[in-house]
Hints:
single chain, alpha/beta, Rossmann fold, 7-stranded parallel β-sheet, 15 helices
Amino acid sequence: MKIGIACHPTFGGSGAVATELGMQLAQRGHEIHFVSYAQPFRLDRFSERVFFHEVEMEHYPLFEHPPYSLALAVALHDAAAKHDLDLIHVHYAIPHATSAWIAREMLQGAGLPIVTTLHGTDITLVGLHPSFHAITRFSILKSDGITAVSSFLKEQTVRDFGVPADRIEMIPNFVDTEIYRPGREPCHRQSLAPGGEKILMHISNFRPVKRVIDVVEIYARVASRIPARLVMIGDGPDRPLAKERAEELGVADGVVFLGKHASVDELLPCADLFLLPSEQESFGLVALEAMASGAPVVAARVGGIPEVVPHGEAGYLFEIGDTEAMAEGALEIIGDETVWKRFSAAGRQLAIDRFSSERIVPEYERYYESILRAGVSG
């Protein structure tokens, strides 16, 4: 198949999944055309049958905010027309599903199927805003195929957008367990924890929803009991607040802010524990990547997280904001080598058995084939 993929190119779960899916599909013989305003951050190596089309934006004084959704529609139209695409797969409803529908209309009856994958805040936050709710619902319903990355997200879409449940296929996120695995070399543990301390790790875009202040507070409680370091990967608006809180708690010397880092697969195997106290996660891809890398997870019991991290098996889940309980859970795991090994092995096995790319990518292929057989809904 020739497949066009539209996604956000920046750090984040939807862009990461879209890029990994495209790369995996290319390895399986499909021709993949990525369309976005910048090269996706994980599209960092050459691959046969993978092409990137940059959306061209014209900055004209009339427009305070250049109309990206229209430029994307033109780019999708051009890619589909020039490369005879069989299907367009868009990740994140806004604006991609809308732009794909416009592109199909521009093709004047060419019958180009559209698959929309819902990832999270496109449904739980952005799409719910009164300014976007109607266009989000319209664009989802105009898609020929709709997938959601968790049962939680599927239920939210049915409830808040009135999309029939039988129109949504739940296909979970996945992880390449050959890339994300324990014992990766080079190992950066010596530089991250030169004194042999336990390493707690957090990766996010540092938005308020990620509750990075909670991460620091959990770490401070843990570090008061055992030698530990906190490695913070990513960047965003709450990074200065996290630094300030670390100073206030007297643990700043033990916190390492690495900023944005594309090769998190090299860092996750160094973690003894991964912290994800978010107040909302529709799936929690980074928790899955941590588990595949052998790191148990302590997280908030929200959204799709319980579908990924079984409580008491691969980690512990607690109520949002309960940093004291999260710290106690963290200490229980990393404070006993036998317990840690059990949780680490269980998380790794779960990633292999339920969420490996070998298992999930063929599900997308089968879904594409069913959509192509059914034809375009219009």
